[in-house]
Amino acid sequence: MVRPREGRKSHLMAVPDSRDELRSFLAAAGRGRGRGPRRDAVVGYELRIELGGVTPTVWRCVVVPSTTMLDELHDVVQDAMGWVDSHLHEWRTAADASAPAAERYGMRLVVDEGDHPIDACESDVRIDEVLAERGDTLYYEYDFGDRWEHRVVLAHVVDAVPTPLCLDGERACPPEDCGGVPGYEHLRAVLGDPRHPDHEALRTWAGDDFDPDLFDLDAASAALTARAEIRRHSPPRGTALAALLARIPALYAPSLYALLLRARLSSDDERVELPARDAEGMTLLAWLLRRTGADGVPLTSSGYLSPAVVAEAREVLGPRYAWAGKSTRELDNPTVLAIRELAQDLGLVRKYRGKLVCTKRAAGPRSDPDALVDYIAARLPLGADEFEREAGLMMLLSVAADADGEEQRRAMLEAATALGWRMGDGEPLTAKDAVAAAGSNRRILHHLGVDLGFGTMPERRPAVVRELARRALRGPSR
After folding, report:
1. How many structural domains does the chain have?
2. In terms of domains, do 35 and 145 share one?
3. Are 377 and 321 in contact (CB under 8 A)?
4. For residue 312, is it within any domain?
5. CA Rg value for the chain
6. Are 443 and 412 in the same domain?
7. pLDDT, tens digit, for every residue of 204-245?
8. How far apart are CA 177 and CA 147, in angstroms?
9. Rounded to a whole number, what is the distance in angstroms from the first to the last CA of the chain?
10. Is 17 a domain residue?
11. Where does the Plasmid pRiA4b Orf3-like domain lie (predicted)?
């Protein structure tokens, strides 16, 4: 036994061994619960979400599947309450809002930065790990400046639901950036007093339609339904696009999310059977690999394909390639030249002793069109920096969704603006700037047969290239 130091009182407490008693014991000690085991069966969790410190109370009642991850629950809180997801957030398990947190769960970008003491990423924690029985509580803080504290209580365990539902609620969510609880109290007081000198200014700032005592259940339900659709069509977790979308609120980039719903990127979607001849760039690339074969094809002394090989390539392209004239010099045939250079850039062919030869990487893609699509998809998006790769992801999404040029430009500009991108001189981006940021990704898609819609030509989105974009965005094949 350890003898207590002189002058200090010592209290011994028996630690209970039952689950319920242990939880009560920890709560009494000022600590919350950490993560527990997940439920074996899926049930519904009826949650009461209450905004702390605000009088009269702002609350919502929602039902979510017990398999909901905390990053998904974040979306539910945002949509049901009426926030616009423009600030950071964090989860805490604690006996009460002021008690030391047992565990903290943060956003992926906060976890990756490593500057804050976070126990786990919210996308790795399931709600039934932290809420198990009626009365269990979780705290959600939104906007570390205004510090909006939400108390999330498991009110009832009910039958399973396929998607989140909003059942009830009272009063409007405070406007974003109103200064937290003190600022909101001041705002309510001023809006309620037409004679106040700041009444007109704050009414204009808050909006004529803002009524602090009004809760629109239909609007909250519609927001949750729209979010469920986005989740259903989203790319698998862990992909580059999923990480990018996590940084772009749907409210600020509706055109981008409209493309997401059309792109069919969910892990439940099947791979599309590739058409035999659909995009001239893909057709010519596949032909070049077969023609090069194991023995290679001759090059001129200047390092270009021989006229005889160029003539064969022109036959593959067919009569619609007559616009290039009759020359069989590779320099006079831009499509042939671009595809040969693309094959080199992709590491499928190389120049060796006066010939163009296939590399070892070309063994599968040379004989299997599906393997060729997978090979290219695995290398996209390209980019010398993060901006080019992320713009490439946006462009790939527009191709996967079969978007026309105007849709693509609008979606990419919205997304880039939501991400806070600016020109080097600090000026805002234009739609043309956002598309140009895709760089080498734009060039590859163009060479493979995609008209990116910058002129007056009709839009073309070959099915094989749309499938290539889908595979690139969904990550490695399952």
Report:
1. 2
2. yes
3. no
4. yes
5. 29
6. yes
7. 999 988 999 999 999 999 999 988 888 888 888 889 999 899
8. 10
9. 58
10. no
11. 45-218
Q: How far apart are CA 20 and CA 240, in angstroms?
A: 42
pLDDT computed for residue 318 by the predictor: 87
Task: Find where tokens 């950071």 sit.
Answer: 88
Q: Which residues pair with 157 in a beta bridge?
A: 45
CATH classification of the domain holding 164 = 3.10.290.30
Helix (H, G, I), strand (E, B) or coil at 186: helix
Interaxial angle between packed helices 463-474 and 280-292, expressed in degrees from 0 to 180 and rounded to the nearest 10: 80
Same domain, 242 and 216: no
In this structure, what token pair is assigned to residue 380?
A: 């996209």
- Is 198 inside any structural domain? no
Of 203, 198, 265, 196, nearest to 230 by C-alpha is 265
Q: Are residues 223 and 299 in the same domain?
A: no
Task: Tell me which DSSP letter residue 11 carries.
Answer: -
Strand order in the sheet with 148-158: 120-121, 103-106, 89-93, 137-142, 148-158, 44-51, 59-65, 165-170
Range of the domain at 77: 28-174+212-229
Instruction: Walk across the sheet containing 349-352 and list its strands.
Output: 297-298, 355-358, 349-352
What is the Cα–Cα distance from 412 to 415, expressed in whole angstroms?
A: 5
What are 460's strand-pairing partners? 451
Q: Characterize the bridge pairing of strands 137-142 and 89-93.
A: antiparallel
